[in-house]
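Aim 2, interim progress: modelling of the NAP-bound target.
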Amino acid sequence: MELQGKRVLVTGASRGIGRELATHFARAGAKVALVARDAASLEALAKDLGGTAHPTDLGQGAQLDRLLDRVEDEAGPVDVLVNNAASAAEGALWKQTGQELSSRVWLNLVVPLELCRQAVPRMLERGGGHLVNVASLAALASVPGMTAYAATKAGLAHGASALRDELKGLPIGVTTVLVGGVRTELLEAGESYEPFHRSFERLRKIQLVPDTPVEVLAAAVVLGVEQGKRTVWVPKRALPLVAAVEAPRKIVSLALTGIKRRA
Ligand SMILES: NC(=O)c1ccc[n+]([C@@H]2O[C@H](COP(=O)([O-])OP(=O)(O)OC[C@H]3O[C@@H](n4cnc5c(N)ncnc54)[C@H](OP(=O)(O)O)[C@@H]3O)[C@@H](O)[C@H]2O)c1
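Predicted structure of the complex, ligand included:
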């Protein structure tokens, strides 16, 4: 997809990865529509990037239900949806409250699927679009302190794969982003739980999941959308993990649609 002049809605754009994604999409010529709760940060970033701010608490069903309507009324048609907002676990599952658990499942899994549901008919009506879902390498393999988070990210990556099959032959691309470690508030919060911190340090030490600079990730995502990639993953050395999880999906997808023979 050529991003020049396209409108890109980024959730979780007030800080961290979302903020950097919005910046890189804007640099690629897109008009960005920014969503998160922190109105002041969104408005300052929107001003810098020439985009629009749409303060929203995605944890509130009533605000989620009308999000695409509202953003399109306030800013114009959305061509690319980037589902990036999420929260991570900060400890063992059984030490969290039921409310924390259901809020996390809501924000990390229900919200992105719901926004895809809202966006697809609009994109089809206008002739095309692109959906980006920011998952995690935790969707493929997990470490302690990430039980609920990993479950939501696995669900999101798998759901995005199913959605891609549903959209086969239609002009909507679906890109799943699988990220290792990026130093943000989310990772810092996760590392406040000692077993998580120890596991992550070990993965860093053996260089399986070295930290990725946020700008490297954002540049890879923008390129992935421009090139219509189904999966963008960082760090690149995680390829064996990605390939192992993608294999069954690709095999079934090929079995269902057949392999195109060369003439
Ligand atoms: N950092 C990593 O190492 C890492 C690794 C793998 C995957 N990821 C994924 O990358 C994405 C971004 O993570 P990050 O590290 O940048 O996290 P972050 O720094 O904690 O940022 C999270 C963003 O989500 C927004 N958000 C949280 N709750 C919200 C709500 N109820 N309504 C609206 N917005 C809400 C926050 O904004 P407000 O607080 O202003 O609402 C913030 O902009 C997530 O999907 C995460 O799972 C991150």
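The chain has one domain: 7-256. The mean pLDDT is 94.
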